[in-house]
Amino acid sequence: GSCHVLFAQNYEKSVHEPIFSGATGGGGCVVCHSNHGIQQPTSAMLAGPNAVCSGCHEPGTPGAKTAQQMKLWIDGLGASLKTSEAVLGEADRAGMEVSEAQVKLGDGRENLVKARLAMHTFQPDEMHKPILAGMAIADETLKSGQAALHEKNVRRIGLAISVFFIAVTVLAIWALIRRLESDGSGYLAPTNVE
To answer: 25: pLDDT confidence band, cut at 50, 70 and 90?
Structure first.
């Protein structure tokens, strides 16, 4: 598909393309993703106990540090987008208008996809651009969701205050009626007309 073409185009720009091109099994994608039992493309492939990169890059070397940085960027953006999504979902379920922010969040997810694509260039600057754009969107949408939840709370407090004053007024009217009835005077007292 079109995504595979983009992956390939990014990979061709990378420092790994000439290194991997002569690898057994055709090189290219299969070096990292395997030919059989395709490796699921997660950030765990970059750094950690089962990282593909660690097969060639010893911990502490520039290559390993770059892989670790890219993993942190992807994981950080993914987590930020999930947090924004959760807050917006809560606001939406509370009946607040957050549809615009939810649409904007889609742009953030698109930036995460772009960052994953750019990762195949193995050029941190190329990958950092969509990461920064995505983080800005995650931050903006999170603030929108938080503002909507705050507004919901303000409305609830306002409603509670209104209900309180209405209840006080009703009780005051009830007390006045009871007093007038017990005094036998006032507008509500019966009149004897012969």
So the answer is: very low
